[in-house]
Design brief:
4-stranded antiparallel beta sheet, 24% strand, alpha/beta, single chain, binds magnesium ion, binds adenosine-5'-triphosphate, 290 residues
Amino acid sequence: MALAAEKNQQTAGGSKMDTGGTLLTNPNVKPAMAARPGEEPKMTSRQVCVFYGQKQALFNVDLDIPSRQVTALIGPSGCGKSTYLRCLNRMNDVIDNCRVTGDIRLDAENIYDPRLDVVMLRARIGMVFQKPNPFPKSIYDNIAYGPRIHGMGATKEELDEIVQTSLERAGLWNEAKDRLAQPGTGLSGGQQQRLCIARAIAVSPEVILMDEPCSALDPIATARIEELIDELRENYTIIIVTHSMQQAARVSQKTAFFHLGVLVEWGDTEQIFTAPRDERTQGYITGRFG
Ligand SMILES: Nc1ncnc2c1ncn2[C@@H]1O[C@H](COP(=O)(O)OP(=O)(O)OP(=O)(O)O)[C@@H](O)[C@H]1O
Ligand SMILES: [Mg+2]
């Protein structure tokens, strides 16, 4: 199966992988479409395949991520949404047996280039997970951790400023300002998720990946995070995996529908939800399967 997929990969025209694991790009492949006329996509994927051992989880995914918009990834459980999200900041690198082929770019730069510093990449492309996962540290240190690693905030004042701004942007400052020295794990679930968003923002990323960020939250905390996502898109490019079609419709401008490891279709959220082109998309959004 892997062999057949590789063969397919090499003839598909997007890109191919050399034996050393680097990506060789075909210069003839142009981005499919820009987000707005004249604007290049923030990220592009071409012919992306992912294998866990012999099992192929994603098949030739071509997707453009527009800058400063929210792109929602939807589809039934096991269709490859998290797998695809992890490709975008090379989180799959840390999974044994996981192999990624194809071409993924951030601002036209190949993120699988072996010369690329993966730690820097993950600072540019932050991630928020399904379950809030604050470090076992104070609220302050949860936010300050990344900036310290990346040499940001040389003085105490600068670091204080980063912590405050990040918490403000994540809508948590008022609730946290009097308890900065207390453990992050002592916050409520919704507050912890905003803390994790603040932590992601603190290193000034350009892209934020969110894998079902509201699935552990109640409706009020969910609404708060959705408002936050809407505010954040002014400054960040956001990609969110969600099982809630209502949430995708509320927060995203673009939607991509995955099914059995294939990106079936993507486009403006309104189009996907009101006039899908593919009957599999139609079936999913109307609740016939999934
Ligand atoms: N670490 C792994 N090792 C082996 N197989 C994996 C691994 N992670 C995911 N898979 C498989 O890859 C496929 C895609 O999984 P993935 O987690 O990306 O789906 P998903 O769309 O995020 O599903 P869900 O909505 O349930 O989170 C599934 O068949 C899954 O079993
Ligand atoms: Mg998932």
